[in-house]
Amino acid sequence: MLNFIARRIFQSIFVMLAVGFIAFAMFRYVGDPINNMVGQDTTLEQRAEIRKQLGLDDPFLLQYARFIGKAAQGDFGMSYRQRRPVSELIESRLPATLELSLVSAVMALFLGIPMGIYTALRRNGILSRTFMTISLIGISLPTFLIGILMILFFGVMLHWLPSFGRGDVVQLGWWSTGFLTNSGWQSLIMPAFTLALFQMTLIMRLVRAEMLEVMQADFIKFARARGLPDRIINFRHALKNTLVPVITITGLQLGSIIAFSIITETVFQWPGMGLLFIQSIGSVDIPVMAAYLLLIAFFFVIINLIVDLLYFAVDPRLRVQKS
Q1: What's the burial of 142, exposed, middle or buried (CB within 10 Å: 0-12/13-18/19+)?
Q2: Which of 102, 76, 100 is nearest to 89 (CA)?
Q3: Of 68, 168, 263, 300, which alpha carbon lies 20 to 30 A from 239's?
Q4: Which residues lie across from 170 on neighbouring strands?
């Protein structure tokens, strides 16, 4: 187990270096950040001095090595647009994104898995057909359209929920949370559901398909022949064997919730890292964009490592092969 973890950590470091290299190389061609930092009256000499101070005249490999070295220490440089350390910007926006992603992930899991189990066991029921219809809507409609429709219906027409922002937050040290205020929960409902809908329907359909396949297996037929109750067969035998592929897809989808929260945060003006990334693209703020991609890659690496460890807890075949 320790060798496995060490090998995955080494692979994760290589992935982070590769993502940093690609991000840093790609953002060199999105425009000149100096044009967004100075006015029209700035002379060429002043522009050259600013480029020298920012290190933009150095060779690419030197800039990349300097960026990676500082990033390993948590220093992502200065924001070209806001003239503040990027680490401070991320620290102020990270709680909003993580809370939105956490609530969306919990909603997708605790709704998607039971719905998938129910639609597999009660395929011809009215409620199952309703769940399948909802899943078609969740997969077919783009996220931004779902968010706009929810704002129109619940925010503009019914005035039940706020249409934008995070609501009131409470500072707990450097962490700002909306979980402790009523307006914070109200502001979280629509963006969290919008972000979770696609993941929830995907998990539901995956659980349903795997459950239907496992229910036709020989060991399930043998369990029925032994006279075991349906509850034990469905949840102890069938569901446990269903979870192995579900964990893989779910782990990747939970990582994509953080990565693709950009659209939801833009629609609802949620003050998270995704909205910061969109704003940074408009101003060619390269340090912020590179730091964001590195952070997203880090979350994916951690989630994949957790998924691999969960395999050993769910699938006994892996433990036998390892031993």
Answers
A1: exposed
A2: 76
A3: 300
A4: 177
Q: Which residues pair with 161 in a beta bridge?
A: none
pLDDT, tens digit, 9 for 90 and up, residues 135-182:
888 888 888 888 899 999 998 888 888 888 888 888 888 888 888 889
Q: CB–CB of 261/272 below 8 Å?
A: yes
Residue 62 backbone phi and psi in degrees, to 5: -65, -40
For domain 86-322, the CATH architecture is Orthogonal Bundle (1.10)
DSSP state of 172: E
Tokens, residue 147: 């968010």
What's residue 1's pLDDT? 64
CB 117 within 8 A of CB 207: yes
pTM of the model: 0.80
Q: Which two tokens stand for residue 323?
A: 């031993």
pLDDT at 37 exceeding the cut of 70: no
Q: What b/e readout covers 26-38, taking b as 16+ CB neighbours within 10 angstroms?
A: ebeeeeebbeebe
> Which pair of structure tokens corresponds to residue 169?
């937050």
Please give the DSSP secondary-structure letter assigned to residue 154. Answer: I
Domain residue ranges of the chain, discontinuous segments joined by +: 86-322
